[in-house]
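User: Design a sequence. Structure:
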C-alpha cells in the first residue's frame, strides 16, 4: 500500500469509527484492523493516534457491543458475528506487533496498551477475552516486564476452570505454554495451587485440548532433572485416583478425595525433596490445597477480583480419569526418565550415592522411586485397556534398560531390580492372556527378551515363567508356518501372525546380539540355535520377497490407473499405505535379525553359514537364466555389425554405448547371502539420520533409530563380504552400485558411521584385493581416466582417442603405453575418491583448495578432535597405504601420489599431531618402502617428482615454523632458508602441539630420505634437512633434541645397508653432521662443567637435564656410528669417540665438585666402559692413540670407579650383616611356646 494512500485511508477509517451507527463503526474498525495487518511497519507513524482513537471509542457509551439507536439497528448489530470490542482487540494486537521492542521506550503508548489489554481481558464476551489474551502474548514477547505474573497466571487458571468455550481455553492454554517456556518457576510461584490437577482434569473434560500436553511436557523438561520424585508422585496420583472432581467450588478448598492422596504422597520416604536454586519449590503450590483460591487480591489496581469472584458451582458427580489421561501420565513418566538419563548424571542411577546426598543435602534422585515405577508398570500392564497395557510395557522396558546396572547397596554383588523379579514377571504375564491384542503380545515378547538379556539375573533357572513365555513363543513359530496362537491368544489373523512372528524372531535376535557380552545367554540360545538360524534366514528371505512383490504390485497398479481412471490409483495408494505400515515394522525387526546373523557369521557358526549359502528363488533363477541365454545369442549375432557401424559413424572413435561387449560371464546361483547383501544396500540407500520432523523429541528418536539402522547394515556388510561367502564375480557386478551408496552415506552421516563405511572398504580390500581392483577388463579400460587435481569430479564416460582405448579381450595386441601406469578402472577410482573426500571433510584447515571444494559441493567439516574423527582418519590413511602396498607396479605411482598427498596433509594439520602423528609416520614409511621395493619397475622421473614434491611440502612447513619463534616471511619460507632466526631456543610460549608438529615433520623428512635411496633428491632439500637436524640438536627442548638425534641415527643406519646409493647419501649427510655432533658434545660439556656455586647435593634444574640429554644422546649417536661402520674403519671411529669423550672426565687435580661436573664425569665414564666392553680390540687401539694426559685421566677415573664400587659393596655387606644380627636378637628375645600338659592346672 502506497504511503500517500495509507494516510488518507487511516484518516477516513478513524473518522468513520466514531460514527454512532453500529454497522458503520463496526466495519470501519474491521477495515482498520485489516489495514494495520497489510501495512506492517509502514503504519508506525499512526500507532499513537490509532491507540488514542481506540481508547476514545472504547470509552464512548454509544459504542456498546449491540450499538445504540433504534431496535432495527440494534438487531442489525446483534446479527454481526463478532462485537466491536473484538475488532478493537485485533487492532491493539496489530499495533503491539508493529511497535515490537520499541514498546518499552514510550511511556504513554506503553501505559495505554497495557490498560486496553487489561480492559479487554475483563470483558464478558469470550471472543473479546481471546483477543485480550493474544495481545498479552505479544506483550510477553516484546515487553515481558510489563506483564504482572501475579495477576496473569491466576486469571488464566480461572479461564481454564470456568470457561465453556473451546477457543478461550485454547487461547489461555497457549498463553500458559508461552509463560512456562520462559520461566516455569515463576508461573507456579504465582499460581493459585492445584495446577497439576487442573491440567490433567482438562485432558478429561476437553480431550481435544492438546496444548495441555505441550505445557506439561515443557514443564517436565525444565524441572524433571531437579525434582523427579515429585513428577513420579504426580503421575502416580493420576493413575491411582478412582475419580476426578470436575465440579468443585471455586472459592473453597481442595476436593475431599484429594486430601488422602496428598497425605499418601507426603508420607513417602522421599518427602521434602529438593527445591530450586532460589530456595523455592516449583511444586510447592501443586501439593497444597486450593485455599489460595478463596483469598482474592485486595489491590484495586488488579482486575483479578472481577474475574474470579463468581457464584459457587454445585459439584458434579466425580468421574474416574479417562484412559487417555492415564496414558498421558505414563508418557510423562517415560519422559521424566528420558530427561534424567540424557542429562548424564550418574547419581540418578546409583542408590547408595542418592541416599547419602539426600540425607546430607536434601537432593532428589530418580533411583529413589524405583519401587513406585515398578508398581505403576504392574498396574498399567494389568489393566484391561490395551493402550494402557502397551504404555505399561514400554515403561517397564525403559525401567529395565535404565536401571539394569544399578547395584543394590544392601545386598553385595546384586542388582537393584533383582528384588523385583516377581513384580516384573507379574507385569509381563498379562500380555499373553486371551484378551491381549497382537500389538500387546508383540511388545510383551520384546520386553521379555530385554529382561532376559539385561543381566539382572544371570542364572537361567531363576528366570521362571518369563523365559518359558519366550521359549513357548519360539516353539509355536517352529511348529506352524503361519503362527496361529501364542500363549492364550488364539485365532490370529495373517497380519497379526506375521507381526508376532517377527517380534519373536526379533526378541531372540536381541538375545543373540547380547550374548556377545553376556556369556550366560549362550546357555539360553544353544538348545534352539540351529532352528533359530533357519528361522532367521527364512525371515530375511520372506522380507526381501515381500519388498520386491509390493514394489512390483505398486508399479503395476499405478500403470493401470493411468488408463482406467482414479479408482485404480486409489486402490494402489490404499494397498501401498498398508504395505508401508507393515514394511516399517518389519524393517525394524530386520535390523535386529541382521545383527544376530552378523554375530554368528563372525563366529563362523556352521548352521548360520549353511542357512545363508543355500540357493534361493529357483523360479526366478530359471527365468533369468533363460533370459540371459537369449540375450547372449542376440548379442553374438549383432556384435560384429554394431561395432563396425559404430566405427564408421564415429570416424574411428569407439563409443561406449556401441562398443563390443566382453564375453558374458557365467553367473552362479543366487544364494540367500546375496539377498542379505541386497537388503543391506537397500536400507542404506533409503535411510538417513537427519531428522525431518518439527518436534525435537521426534527428531532425536528418528536420528537414533536411523543411526542404529545404518550401523547395523554396515556391520552386516562387514561380516558377509568375504570371498568364502560372496564370490568375486558377484561383487564385481555390483561393486560400483555399492560404492555409490556408501559414498552417499559417508557424505550425509557423522564420523562414527563414516568409520564403519571405511571398515567395509577395508574388509573388501583385505578379502578380494587384486582380484577385484587390479583386473584388466574392457569396460574398465573404456571408463578409465587419469587422476586429475580434483578427485571429487565426475568420471569421464567415453573415450575419444582410439590410441588410448584398450583392445578387446583376446585380441592379442599389446596395451598402449599411455595406460600402463593409469588406474585400472572405476572400481579402484571410486574407493580412492571416497577416501580422499573423507580426508577433505576432516582436514579442511590444511588445504585451501579443499575449503573451496567443500563450499562448492556442500560438504561439511567434521569435528577434528573427536575420537571418532581420529579413528576415521587413521583407517583412511591405513587403507591408502595398504592399496599402495598390494598394487601392481604400473598402478603404484598414481596411488602413491594420492596417498602421499593425504598423509602429508594430515601430518601438516596441527589438530592431529598428537593422536595421528605416529600412525601417519608408520604409513608414510610403508608407502616409501613399497616404492623402493619396486623402484626398478617404476618410471624414475615420475617417482623422483613424487618424492621431491612430498619433501618440498614437509620442508616448506618446517621452514615457515619453529617452536617458540614467529613464522618466517613468504620469501624465506619459499626459499627454504631456515637461518639463525628459526633456531629453537627455549620452551617459553611453546605449546606441546607445536613441539609435536616440529618433531613429526622432521621424522617424516628423515623417513623419505632414508627409505627410498635410489631416487635423486634435490641438493637444496638435503642441505635444508641438515640445518633442521642441527637446529634440533642445539635446542633447549628435550623432545626436539631426542628427535634430532633420532634423525641422525636414521642417517647413520643407511651406512650399514648394502645399497650403494644409500651409503653415498649417508656419507654426504654425515660429512657435516658428525663433526657438528662432536663439537656440540664438547661445547655442552664445557658449559655444564664451567658453572660454579652448585654443590653435589643440589638437584639439577630443567636446563641441566636438557644439557645432559644433549651430551648423552650425542655419545650414543657416535656409538651407533661405530656399530654401523665397517670393520676396516671402525677402529678409527672408536678412536674419534674416545678422543671426544675422555676430555669430559673429571681431572685428578680439579677442585670443581659441582653436581654438573660430576654428572658429566659419570656419564662419560659409563659410556667409555660400555664402549670397551662392546669393542675391546678397537678400544685398545683407541687407547693407544690417546695422549699421555688423557690416558692417565681415563685410568684414574676407572680406578676410582672400581674403588667406589668396592666400597659400596662393602657397605652393602655390612648393612646386610647388621640386619641379620638384629633379626637373630629379636628371634632369641621373643619366644612363644604352646603348653602341651595341663596336669598341674587348677
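Assistant: Done.
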Amino acid at each position: 500500500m502506497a504511503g500517500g494512500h495509507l494516510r488518507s485511508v487511516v484518516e477516513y477509517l478513524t473518522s468513520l469509527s466514531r460514527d454512532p451507527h453500529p454497522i458503520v463503526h463496526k466495519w470501519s474498525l474491521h477495515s482498520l484492523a485489516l489495514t494495520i495487518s497489510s501495512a506492517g511497519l509502514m503504519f508506525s507513524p499512526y500507532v499513537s493516534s490509532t491507540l488514542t482513537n481506540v481508547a476514545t471509542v472504547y470509552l464512548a457509551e454509544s459504542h456498546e457491543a449491540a450499538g445504540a439507536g433504534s431496535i432495527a439497528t440494534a438487531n442489525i448489530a446483534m446479527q454481526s458475528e463478532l462485537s466491536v470490542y473484538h475488532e478493537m482487540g485485533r487492532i491493539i494486537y496489530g499495533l503491539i506487533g508493529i511497535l515490537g521492542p520499541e514498546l518499552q521506550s514510550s511511556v504513554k503508548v506503553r501505559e495505554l496498551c497495557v490498560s486496553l489489554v487489561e480492559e479487554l481481558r475483563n470483558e464478558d464476551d469470550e471472543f473479546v477475552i481471546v483477543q485480550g489474551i493474544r495481545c498479552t502474548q505479544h506483550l510477553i514477547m516484546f515487553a515481558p516486564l510489563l506483564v504482572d505474573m501475579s495477576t496473569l497466571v491466576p486469571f488464566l487458571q480461572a479461564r481454564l476452570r470456568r470457561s465453556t468455550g473451546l477457543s478461550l481455553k485454547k487461547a489461555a492454554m497457549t498463553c500458559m505454554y508461552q509463560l512456562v517456556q520462559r520461566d516455569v518457576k515463576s508461573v507456579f510461584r504465582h499460581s493459585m495451587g492445584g495446577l497439576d490437577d487442573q491440567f490433567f482434569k482438562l485432558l478429561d473434560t476437553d480431550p481435544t485440548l492438546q496444548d495441555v500436553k505441550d505445557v506439561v511436557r515443557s514443564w517436565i523438561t525444565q524441572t524433571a532433572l531437579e525434582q523427579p520424585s515429585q513428577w513420579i508422585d504426580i503421575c502416580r496420583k493420576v493413575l491411582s485416583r478412582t475419580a476426578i472432581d470436575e465440579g468443585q467450588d471455586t472459592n473453597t478448598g481442595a476436593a475431599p478425595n484429594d486430601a488422602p492422596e496428598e497425605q499418601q504422597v507426603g508420607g513417602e520416604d522421599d518427602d521434602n525433596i529438593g527445591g530450586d536454586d532460589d530456595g523455592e519449590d516449583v511444586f510447592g503450590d501443586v501439593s497444597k490445597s486450593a485455599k489460595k483460591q478463596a483469598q482474592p487480591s485486595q489491590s484495586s489496581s488488579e482486575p483479578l477480583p472481577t474475574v474470579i469472584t463468581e457464584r459457587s458451582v454445585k459439584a458434579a458427580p466425580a468421574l474416574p480419569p479417562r484412559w487417555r489421561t492415564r496414558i498421558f501420565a505414563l508418557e510423562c513418566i517415560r519422559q521424566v526418565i528420558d530427561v534424567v538419563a540424557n542429562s548424564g548424571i550418574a547419581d540418578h542411577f546409583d542408590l547408595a550415592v542418592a541416599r547419602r546426598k539426600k540425607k546430607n543435602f536434601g537432593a532428589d534422585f530418580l533411583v529413589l522411586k524405583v519401587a513406585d515405577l515398578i508398581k505403576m508398570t504392574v498396574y498399567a500392564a494389568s489393566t484391561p485397556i490395551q493402550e494402557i497395557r502397551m504404555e505399561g510395557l514400554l515403561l517397564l522396558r525403559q525401567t529395565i534398560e535404565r536401571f539394569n546396572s544399578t547395584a543394590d547397596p544392601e545386598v553385595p554383588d546384586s542388582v537393584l531390580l533383582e528384588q523385583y523379579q516377581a513384580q516384573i514377571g507379574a507385569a509381563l504375564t498379562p500380555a499373553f492372556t486371551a484378551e491381549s491384542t497382537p500389538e500387546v503380545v508383540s511388545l510383551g515378547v520384546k520386553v521379555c527378551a530385554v529382561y532376559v538379556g539385561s543381566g539382572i539375573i544371570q542364572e537361567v533357572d531363576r528366570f521362571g515363567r518369563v523365559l518359558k513365555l519366550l521359549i513357548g513363543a519360539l516353539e509355536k513359530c517352529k511348529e506352524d508356518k503361519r503362527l496361529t496362537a501364542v500363549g492364550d491368544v488364539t485365532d490370529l489373523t495373517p497380519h497379526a501372525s506375521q507381526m508376532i512372528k517377527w517380534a519373536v524372531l526379533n526378541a531372540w535376535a536381541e538375545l543373540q546380539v547380547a550374548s556377545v557380552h553376556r556369556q550366560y545367554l549362550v546357555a539360553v540360545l544353544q538348545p534352539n540355535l540351529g532352528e533359530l538360524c533357519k528361522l532367521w534366514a527364512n525371515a530375511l528371505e520372506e522380507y526381501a520377497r515381500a519388498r520386491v512383490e509390493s514394489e512390483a504390485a505398486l508399479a503395476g497398479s499405478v500403470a493401470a490407473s493411468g488408463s482406467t481412471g482414479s479408482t485404480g490409483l486409489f486402490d494402489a495408494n490404499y494397498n501401498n499405505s498398508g504395505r508401508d505400515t507393515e514394511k516399517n515394522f518389519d524393517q525394524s525387526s530386520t535390523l535386529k535379525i541382521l545383527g544376530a546373523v552378523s554375530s554368528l557369521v563372525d563366529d563362523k557358526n556352521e548352521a548360520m553359514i549353511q542357512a545363508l549359502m543355500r540357493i534361493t528363488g529357483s523360479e526366478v533363477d530359471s527365468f533369468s537364466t533363460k533370459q540371459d541365454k537369449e540375450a547372449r545369442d542376440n548379442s553374438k549375432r549383432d556384435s560384429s555389425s554394431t561395432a563396425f557401424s559404430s566405427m564408421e559413424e564415429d570416424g574411428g572413435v569407439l563409443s561406449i554405448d556401441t562398443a563390443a561387449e566382453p564375453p558374458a560371464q557365467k553367473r552362479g546361483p543366487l544364494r540367500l547371502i546375496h539377498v542379505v547383501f541386497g537388503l543391506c544396500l537397500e536400507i542404506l540407500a533409503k535411510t538417513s539420520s537427519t531428522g525431518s520432523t518439527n518436534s525435537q523429541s521426534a527428531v532425536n528418536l528418528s536420528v537414533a533409530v536411523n543411526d542404529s539402522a545404518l550401523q547395523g547394515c554396515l556391520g552386516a556388510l562387514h561380516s558377509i563380504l568375504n570371498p568364502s561367502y560372496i564370490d568375486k564375480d558377484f561383487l564385481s557386478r555390483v561393486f560400483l552400485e555399492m560404492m555409490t551408496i556408501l559414498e552417499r552415506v559417508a557424505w550425509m552421516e557423522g564420523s562414527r558411521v563414516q568409520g564403519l563405511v571405511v571398515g567395509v572398504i577395508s574388509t573388501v580390500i583385505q578379502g578380494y584385493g587384486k582380484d577385484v581392483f587390479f583386473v584388466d577388463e574392457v569396460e574398465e579400460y573404456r571408463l578409465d581416466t587419469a587422476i586429475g587435481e580434483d578427485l571429487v569430479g565426475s568420471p569421464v564416460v567415453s573415450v575419444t582417442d582410439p590410441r588410448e582405448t584398450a583392445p578387446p579381450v583376446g585380441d592379442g595386441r599389446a596395451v598402449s603405453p599411455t595406460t600402463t601406469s593409469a588406474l585400472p578402472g572405476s572400481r579402484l577410482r571410486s574407493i580412492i575418491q571416497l577416501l580422499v573426500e573423507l580426508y577433505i571433510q576432516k582436514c579442511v584447515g590444511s588445504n585451501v583448495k579443499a575449503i573451496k571444494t567443500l563450499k562448492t559441493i556442500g560438504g561439511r567439516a567434521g569435528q577434528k578432535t573427536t575420537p571418532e574423527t581420529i579413528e576415521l582418519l587413521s583407517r583412511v590413511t591405513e587403507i591408502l597405504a595398504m592399496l599402495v602396498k598390494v598394487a601392481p607396479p604400473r598402478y603404484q605411482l598414481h596411488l602413491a601420489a594420492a596417498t602421499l598427498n593425504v598423509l602429508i596433509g594430515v601430518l601438516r594439520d596441527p589438530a592431529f599431531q598428537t593422536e595421528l602423528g605416529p600412525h601417519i609416520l608408520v604409513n608414510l614409511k610403508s608407502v616409501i618402502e613399497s616404492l623402493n621395493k619396486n623402484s626398478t619397475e617404476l618410471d624414475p622421473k615420475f617417482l623422483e617428482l613424487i618424492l621431491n614434491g612430498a619433501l618440498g611440502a614437509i620442508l616448506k612447513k618446517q621452514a615457515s615454523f619453529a617452536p617458540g619463534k614467529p613464522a618466517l616471511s613468504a620469501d624465506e619460507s619459499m626459499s627454504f632458508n631456515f637461518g639463525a632466526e628459526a633456531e629453537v631456543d627455549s620452551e617459553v610460549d611453546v605449546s606441546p602441539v607445536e613441539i609435536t608438529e616440529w618433531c613429526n615433520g622432521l621424522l617424516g623428512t628423515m623417513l623419505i630420505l632414508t627409505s627410498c635411496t635410489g631416487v635423486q633428491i634435490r641438493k637444496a632439500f638435503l642441505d635444508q634437512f641438515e640445518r633442521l637436524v642441527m637446529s634440533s640438536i642445539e635446542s633447549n627442548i628435550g623432545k626436539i633434541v631426542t628427535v634430532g638425534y633420532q634423525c641422525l641415527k636414521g642417517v647413520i643406519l643407511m651406512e650399514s645397508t648394502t645399497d650403494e646409493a644409500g651409503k653415498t647419501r649417508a656419507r654426504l649427510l654425515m660429512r657435516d653432521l658428525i663433526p657438528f655432533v662432536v663439537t656440540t658434545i664438547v661445547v655442552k660439556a664445557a658449559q655444564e662443567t664451567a658453572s660454579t656455586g652448585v654443590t653435589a647435593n643440589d638437584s639439577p634444574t630443567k636446563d641441566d637435564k636438557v644439557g645432559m640429554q644433549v651430551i648423552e644422546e650425542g655419545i650414543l649417536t657416535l656409538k651407533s656410528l661405530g656399530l654401523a661402520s665397517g670393520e676396516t674403519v671402525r677402529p678409527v671411529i672408536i678412536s674419534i669417540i674416545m678422543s671426544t669423550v675422555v676430555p669430559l672426565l673429571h681431572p685428578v687435580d680439579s677442585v670443581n665438585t659441582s653436581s654438573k661436573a660430576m654428572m658429566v664425569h659419570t656419564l662419560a665414564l659409563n659410556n667409555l666402559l660400555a664402549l670397551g666392553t662392546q669393542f675391546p680390540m678397537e678400544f685398545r687401539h683407541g687407547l693407544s692413540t690417546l695422549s699421555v694426559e688423557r690416558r692417565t685421566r681415563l685410568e684414574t677415573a676407572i680406578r676410582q670407579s672400581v674403588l667406589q664400587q668396592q666400597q659400596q659393596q662393602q657397605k652393602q655387606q655390612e648393612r646386610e650383616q647388621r640386619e641379620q644380627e638384629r633379626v637373630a636378637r629379636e628371634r632369641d628375645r621373643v619366644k612363644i611356646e604352646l603348653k602341651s600338659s595341663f596336669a598341674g592346672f587348677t
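The first helix runs from residue 3 to 17. The chain has a mean pLDDT of 74.
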